[in-house]
Amino acid sequence: MTSGKGPSAGDATLRRRIEPWQFEASFDPRQLRKEACLLSEVRWGVSPRAWRESGLNTTSHVEMNFIEKFTSERSLRPAVRCSITWFLSWSPCWECARAISEFVRQRPNVSLVIYVARLFWHMDEQNRQGLRDLVTSGVRVQVMSDSDYSHCWRNFVNYLPGQEAGWPRFPPMWTTLYALELSCILLSLPPCLKISRRHQNQLTFFQLTLQDCHYRAIPPPVLSAAGLMH
Ligand SMILES: [Zn+2]
Known about the structure:
alpha/beta, Cytidine Deaminase, domain 2, 2 domains, 5-stranded mixed beta sheet, globular, binds zinc ion, mRNA 3'-UTR AU-rich region binding, mRNA processing, APOBEC_Cyt_Deaminase, CMP_dCMP_dom
């Protein structure tokens, strides 16, 4: 439906698309923007068609809003497979993680993959446990890569004509750092990544501290991607 000239006027997804500035501001891994954004895709059975929506936090978190809307709108036929993909600017907090785990556990025909731009308060043990519980419930959690940014841009962003390939390229280091920390979380290791923000100049800093347990347990490809092993 989209051509190389921007999403066409007849594109039914147009009104659900977000503006380029909003995508960039929400999904920049270096920004610690408070607002969370969820871009969702739902596929039914073997149909290649995806139902796409975008959402922001309201009085409740975006994840809760999705679950509420999904469960109230759809009478789910258990025989039909349903694949859900989320692109989240922040990984789910522990309360949302609990609700999501419950949501998928009650629906064996639903699969959920979550791509996150950043890890939300990842030093907090409850949030770490929440992410582990998600994975135990069968949810796949991954950090967004450049190809995910490209996918979101083409399918969720109201980009300008000719800008189909104009998705923001963020320094890959951030993806690597968050992927490394996500490995630590899922392996029940202590945090190795500390992120801080200097408010005067709006810069985000990180500090990486690896202990022996990290070197022993983190898969070598993840370590080497972070330049921590040769
Ligand atoms: Zn939440």
